Amino acid sequence: MKKGRGGQSRMKRHLRGPRGFLYAMLGFYVLVVGGFGTFATITDYNETLDNSEKLTRDYVRLLEEHTKRTLDSADLLVLRLMDRIAVQGRLPMLAEHETERRVMSSMANASPQTETLFLVDPTGHVMLASRPLPQQVLDVTDRDFFPVLKQGHETLFIGRVARDPFTNNFTFPVARRIIDSQGRFLGIAVASISNIYFKEFYHNLAVGSTPALGVYKLDGSILIREPIFKDDDVINRNMATNPIYVKYLPISPIGTYRGKSAYDGVQRVVSYRKVETPPLLVWMSIAENDALAEWYWRAMRNAAIGVLTILLMTGLSWMVLRAIRQEETARDDLERANDSLRRSNADLEQFAYIASHDLQEPLRQIGSYVQLLERRYKDKLDSDANTFIAYTVDGVKRLQGLIHELLAYSSVGTRRSPFVETDLTEQARKAALTLSGDIKQSGAEVLIETLPTLTVDASQIEAVFQQLIANGLRFQKVGAVPHLRIWAEERPEDWIISVKDDGIGIDPQYFDRIFLIFKRLHSRTEYPGDGIGLALCQRVIERHGGRIWVESDIGQGAIFRFSLPKIIHQPTQAGIP
Predict the structure, then answer these.
(1) Is-above-0.70 flag for pTM?
(2) Of 185, 271, 333, 509, which is the most buried if we count CB atoms within 10 A?
(3) Interhelix angle 533-543/383-414, nearest 10 degrees
(4) Which domains can be identified in the chain, with CATH numbers?
């Protein structure tokens, strides 16, 4: 039990923090990708089928118009032939057959949908055609159009499909009865329309590999059917039991549905339209597999992308988890090192402060006794002794200055004041006032423009201004009158404070060196100083979260710039500068 509870506790700790968030994010990503992918795929599926329905509706309207124009053209050809006979008031005589055949051939050739144009006499024999007649007599009394038209059908009649007696192609007749002025039956004018004409229309459709179309009579007999699997299907097959006739046509003369074809067993999207004049049914269909072909590709592509992104996300998560483990290990090591470093820094700074403070007392005693020795025995010793005493006094003074500077440098980290809202203009003026003796002696001009108010350690910022102004006064050519300018520039996140002088300038190769402690570019005889001032400035500015740098060239003066964030967070841990 204890082991089980320990395992649960470790699991809970394992799921907290970045790991738990990462696991939750990965699970959420999988749910989002899977859910959105499924939703998008289903939506795309429905939209694709809806678009295929719209496409079939458009194509069936096109087929309807194509069929009507084809029938109208054939009927017009029949009417023109009837008009020629009506002018003569009789059927052509035998002597006129050749002339009339050439005329009928010309008329048929000008009508691309017409296979053959021919005349049938009252007995049912083909007496004249646009093509040469065969030797045997052509009898059409068994064709459905002959008895109907002979018995008095007055309008256009569309017959069933049969093989054309002249070309043996599948055709259906468009026929009208011919009567004379007294209403006597003279015969029948017939134009046969080839199935091949509609096949060309079928093959021009860009609706997949297995589209299908048809033009049927309302009794279910086939006029046009593409594709045809068996040649005799269009003659012997009747579609009156097809779902279009049985299920859908009684409900609406125009419609679209999805179902399995009774002819080829293919699942299809079917659109149909009932034509009133002439009474026909036209339909158009697309196989669902063709309609969904692009959808299948998109679905597979999206699924592959989803799986790849999930695998990629999983891989990245594993890398992040690994990095988290490494970071936790490194953070623990760093925390231990930081603790040790903080203790070391605190001890070192405390030691530097104590050492600097405690060294001043014996140094003052050495200086006092050397100066006393100088006053009492100055005239009693030789010149070498006097020189040695002078060197000793000068060395003590220099050592006192170095200890004072080192004490100031160490106090940046150990003897800090709290950050308060401070007018930097006032601090710059205080610094200039402290150096007023040097300014007056050199005749310098110090221009202080309006500076911002920020939350800083006022005394330390004043020390920075004092050091930079002092440098501008010190590093001048002999006899030159210094001109200094202090101004500020605002940026989105911080302020840039600039102190410009017109002194001797700095070679760019020494820009980094001047901020190192006790590093000097000139001898003390040329320009006095201990080489710690700029290092102190850098430490103060870095404590405030900014940085300090210089822009200069030899003989062109120098511009010292330092940045101060608009929002400065004061360090809270003691001993950290």
Answers:
(1) no
(2) 271
(3) 10
(4) 47-293 (3.30.450.20), 354-565 (3.30.565.10)
